[in-house]
Design a protein that fits this description.
outer membrane lipoprotein receptor (LolB), chain A; globular; single chain; eleven-stranded antiparallel sheet; 11 strands
């Protein structure tokens, strides 16, 4: 159950409300698919696995799998409702990610902005402190109580390929192996 808790925390990060902001040069649009590897550390608990995320401004579909490819949890956001389904088929629903987190985990986890952060930009509508690297790309972002470090970028696409998100005693490391624009 503890690993499910960590996976749920990670998945909830991907269901943030989308806020429009101009994308940096070489980036991907509002509709995207990404897949990669993820590790989560919360307190003394840690887990790692794979993530697949299909994002549209009005919907999200995230699948988190263990390192062997078995689905651990799925979060779907559509029509103003967020549904989390665990591998043992427990289903949780709420109108927003924070309510879902509170329902499923007993506390709120506000991670608004992740769909922007993975594209190398701050989320609109929230104050942010940024630091750029020597190539004028985002190297560090402080927003909504999170420190987002952009550890590497894909040279061909200009998109982030490695990020580390930290807040209090939680740390999420995301390695993006594949980006794809969605129609």
């Amino acid at each position: 159950m503890r690993y499910a808790f960590i996976w749920v925390c990670l998945l909830l990060a991907g269901c943030a409300t989308i806020q429009q902001q101009a994308a940096p040069a070489g980036s991907i649009g509002e509709d995207f698919y990404l897949s990669g590897r993820v590790s989560v550390k919360h307190g003394t608990e840690a887990a790692s696995g794979r993530i697949s995320w299909q994002h549209h401004p009005d919907s999200d579909d995230l699948l988190l799998s263990n390192p062997f490819g078995q689905g651990v949890a799925r979060i779907v956001r559509r029509d103003g409702l967020v549904t989390l389904t665990t591998s043992d088929q427990k289903v949780y629903q709420a109108k927003d990610v924070e309510d879902l987190t509170e329902q499923a985990l007993g506390w709120r986890l506000p991670l608004a902005g992740l769909s922007d952060w993975v594209r190398g930009r701050a989320a609109a509508g929230a104050p942010a402190q940024t630091r750029l690297d020597s190539s004028h790309r985002l190297a560090e972002l402080r927003q909504s109580g999170w420190l987002v470090e952009f550890l590497d970028y894909n040279d061909a696409s200009g998109l982030p390929s490695q990020l580390r998100l930290s807040r209090e005693d939680a740390q999420i490391r995301l390695v993006i192996d594949q980006w794809r624009a969605e129609p």
